[in-house]
Amino acid sequence: MTTKLFGERVQRREDPRLITGQGRYLDDLGQDALAAAFVRSPHAHARIRDIDVSAAVDVEGLVAVYTWEDLPERVRDPLPLLIPHPALTHGRTAYPLARDIVRHVGEPVVMVVARDRYLAEDAASLITVDYELLKPVVGVEEAAQGVHLVHEDVPGNVGAHMIQEVPSAAGLGAREAIDAAPHTLAFRLDIERSASMPLEGRGVYARWDADDRSLRVYSSTQTSTSVRMAVAAKLGLPLPSVEVIAPDVGGGFGVKIVHPWPEEVLVPWAAMLLGREVKWTEDRREHFVSSAHERGQVQHVRVGFDDEGRVLGLDVTILHDHGAYTPYGIIVPIITSTQLLGPYRIGAYRVEFSSIYTNTVQVTPYRGAGRPQATFCMERTMDKIAAHLGKDRAAVREANFIHPDEFPYDQGLIFQDGRPLIYDSGDYPESLRVLKGLIGWDGFAEQKERAAAEGRRIGIGLGCYVEGTGVGPYEGGHVQVTSDGRVHVSTGLTSQGQGHETVFAQIAATELGVPLDRVSVVTGDTRRFGYAVGTFASRAAVMSGNAIALACRKVREKALGIAADALEADPRDLTIEDGEVRVAGNPGASIPLATVAVLSNPLRYAFDEEAKRATQFSGAASMDRPPVAEGEEPGLEGRDYYSPVRSTFASGMHAAIVETDPETAEIRILRYAVVHDCGRLINPMIVEGQIHGGVAQGVGGALYERMAYDEHGQLLNASFMDFLMPYATEVPLIETAHLETPSPLNPLGIKGAGEAGVIPVSAVIASAIEDAEGIAVDRMPISPSELHDLRSRAGS
Amino acid sequence: MSETTGERRYAISLTVNGTVREATVPARRLLSDCLRHELGLTGTHVGCEHGVCGCCTVLLDGEPVRSCLTFAVTVDGREITTVEGLAGPGGELSPVQRAFTECHALQCGFCTPGFLCTVTALLRDNPAPTEDEVLEGISGNLCRCTGYQNIVKAVHRAAELTAEAEGGAA
User: Fold this and answer.
1) What are the pLDDT digits (tens) for A33-89?
2) A649 within 8 A of A742, measured Cβ to Cβ
3) β-strands A349-357, A311-323 pairing
4) Within chain A, which residue ranges are assigned CATH 3.30.365.10?
5) Cβ-Cβ contacts under 8 Å, A21 against chain B
6) Which of A338, A391, A735, B102 falls 20 to 30 Å from A380 in CA-CA distance?
7) CA of B91 vs chain A CAs: smallest distance (Å)
8) How close, in Å, is residue A312 to chain B by CA atoms?
């Protein structure tokens, strides 16, 4: 069937505009807008004594200068705490412009608006801020000692403290289970900070229409609907008077889910106040010091296990560095602590985290969102158990796997959506079997010996994870067939390169039986769809994909009803193929969907030839019922929502072979293999692309990327010169295989795929380096000089 | 500062994508900003403003350069090709553009114009690059989405498409 497109490697609908320079990213818009620039704090912790703007006021083209004192009610209030949680007892958010105290380098202090960005920066450079320096609090362990405080009213710098405990089947707590176990181990793990680092930074462009008192805001955001609500609330505007559009967005990876950013409030406010279009485009240095980071954690682990390596008790204590503010709550450490168990059935589990303030950039989700740390912890634990028992690392994992007949499997924890952590489906033993075959696990010992004989050090490692994807609360889809036979799909969540226009079109084309080129998809535009949550947590395909499918099914049912009347057929005998409703077994009897769309909307006025069919004297309508029957609506369109009872759980396993240079300690990834299971695939090409990108970010996190803060809270590597992201030369060939274990939770049987690739990479690379070197690797990322230091300490 | 009394501006003339374009810019205006904001060619993107990411790569007299490290006044009279000028006169996509979409070598598309310009020059100079030559050739451009897997494939595919087209023409 020509219209069966679900599951096909369809080329992307987005590409033609993006490869010809016709994309519309934030800074491509508003060419005549005024430009905003910000004076940002050069200090990690200081009190503002005075702000002197006098030297700036003579700059040609200067339009306005604003400090916190200039901001009106609501606009001047602290930014919202987006995800409150009972354990977040001391949540704090920033003011849009600093009020009295700055708490990290990069915090905005003064906003400047000028004719263009050059002039705005000229003026910003002439503004002098007099600071009284306060003691910076840097490093999560130092901060946790609470000697100096980031917020005067937050004792011990502890924003949140949370414990979850799942006893064993026999009712033992984790600590008792560990004490009673035949073997125990205790160790510490460290993960450094990294960041989403999309190649397009953040940006906001606002137009105020003084005639109809409405505001249009464009933002490079992962959630236009929620930015809209936040802006309307901050500016005191009725919601229908504010529209927010996410144009083409040059990557998000989590950082752009945070909102409203100071600039998302201030730029629209200034546009209203000045009656002029205003735009702010973040530069790279601003992105490093003023957006968000992630990953930094210190973990203390105790584990008890039996002779087979089965985990009887696991006790993990996490120190999580959340930076200066907590606008996104404690989602990251919640995810770390709940996704830590991976594909395993663990005897008893206790996890405790403290989420700690430091005078550094705030921490909010970056692709993986706490899972890379969780997987690092669990998988390092598995490797240490294997080493302790002298067992094969894959065998130890296998001994702990949840088996396919145990689903749904309740881990006994509360997940990031506030709902029980119940795995819906999966086949972990099969994933491992496929992975071992792909990487050549069983034959590796000989390969390693042969390499050793040549004086080369190689090692193999693996890592397994489970990822809760497709979190609620909901997404919606709207589908309209117009009288030209075209299908217009919209959904409220946003796109940052995932290919939503393509996969959602595939879903709609499949559900409605129309050719793909008749379907167009709009995302992230509140003018088209106002109810949405956003793009994060590998949820877009699951949430909007299913919502669009359900909306299409409504449209299909309606189309079949109208066509049945027109064709005098039983709706159950009708199919839609190639955009035509056909009577099964009667090739002559058909009606184009375009005509069905015309008939769906009874008309008084014929605006074109086709429309005549729907007018009152066409003879088409039954005289026995009103033109629009009770319970019906005019038009061939449908809207529906998908709201899952809980998350769906994708899974995967990665393996790598690395080579370490005996002299230089350089680390090279020779092979990288991925087995991935995200349920049914809508477009395998796009899923593979997501995995590739995730693995590359994982390689960055494992070997290169870190945020180098000094003791003063200065970020020493806030540029692409010094923050090392992988180029093509650093990413190995990625070999992939898919399993498709459908989710029983949603109509399409799909699970999320966006974050998966990044999750286990640090664990896998650590495992492989450890295998090559015979030295424990407990801290990531690892550079050649750090490996060299490890060797020196180990005396090898 | 001189800005307080107005900046001196310079009239320059550039041949961009085959068309002569005039602009009047201050000495400090970057070529990237001149293309994007004076000439409205927003396909050239700016990702780092210090010459590392390669998003702003354009062809200057045929050679790839970082337009964010180039002052517009220094290229007065020169020829520039941007992503908007890679397709043929009738809008037919270049082999590099076709290969990028065929191989799914872009996701968010922000780095793509820089890659397309870089690869166009790479294949002109070396029509059949080896795997190592491809990696070397694109190792000055960052992509945060694709993990480069499909970009590498696309470069080889573009080489194939170019060879096919030339074979067909011969």
Assistant:
1) 999 999 999 999 999 999 999 999 999 999 999 999 999 999 999 999 999 999 999
2) no
3) parallel
4) 297-471+645-794, 472-642
5) 41-44, 82-84, 113
6) A735
7) 9
8) 38
Residue B67 near residue B44, CB atoms below 8 Å = yes
- Domain spanning A32-134+196-290: which superfamily? Aldehyde oxidase/xanthine dehydrogenase, a/b hammerhead (3.90.1170.50)
Spatial contact of A257 and A365, defined as CB atoms under 8 Å apart: yes
For residue A118, which residues of chain B lie inside 8 Å, CB to CB?
A: 26, 28-29
Whether residue A31 and residue B146 make contact (CB cut-off 8 A), yes or no, is no
CATH number at residue B139: 1.10.150.120
Burial class (CB within 10 angstroms; exposed 0-12, middle 13-18, buried 19+) of A388: middle
Q: What is the ipTM score, two decimals? A: 0.96
Placement of tokens 């795995």 in the chain? A423
Q: Is A382 an interface residue toward B (CB < 8 Å)?
A: no
A685–B104 CB contact, under 8 Å: yes
Q: How far apart are CA A500 and CA A496, in angstroms?
A: 9
Question: In angstroms, rounded to a whole number, what is the distance separating the alpha carbons of residues A340 and A323?
Answer: 22
Report the residue of A19, A218, A735 to disrupt the B interface, i.e. the one with the largest count of B CBs within 10 Å. Answer: A19
Closest chain B residue to A18, measured at CA: B109
Asked whether the predicted pLDDT for residue A19 surpasses 80, the reply is yes
With vertex at residue A718, the alpha carbon angle to CA A715 and CA A723, rounded to the nearest 5 degrees, is 110
What is chain A's mean pLDDT, rounded?
A: 96
Domain with CATH 3.90.1170.50 in chain A: 32-134+196-290
Q: How far is A342 from chain B (nearest CA, A)?
A: 25
B149 lies within 8 A of chain A by CB: yes
Q: Do A15 and B100 touch (CB under 8 A)?
A: yes
In the beta sheet, which residues pair with residue A26?
Answer: none
Residue A196: what residue type?
S
R_g of chain A, CA atoms, integer Å: 28
Cα-to-chain-centroid distance, residue A131: 37
